[in-house]
Amino acid sequence: FLGLPWTPGLQDQAEDRAYRNGQLRMVVVKIPLADDTIDQQLWQMLM
C-alpha cells in the first residue's frame, strides 16, 4: 500500500486477499507507519 485505506472494511478486505484460496503458507501482514503522518492518525482511529 502507498497509504492506509480510509475504512476498517477496506483494510480487512486488503488483508483477506493475502489469504487467497489455496494458500498453504502462513501469511504475515505488516503495516509500516511513519510518525506524525495522516496514516498514523488513521491507524489510531481504526484500532
From TrEMBL:
Keywords: ATP-binding, Helicase, Hydrolase, Nucleotide-binding
Xref: PANTHER family: DNA ANNEALING HELICASE AND ENDONUCLEASE ZRANB3, DNA ANNEALING HELICASE AND ENDONUCLEASE ZRANB3 FAMILY MEMBER
Entry's transmembrane regions: none
Protein's name in the database: SNF2-related:helicase
GO biological-process terms attached to the record: DNA repair; replication fork processing
GO molecular function terms noted in the UniProt entry: ATP binding; DNA endonuclease activity; helicase activity; hydrolase activity
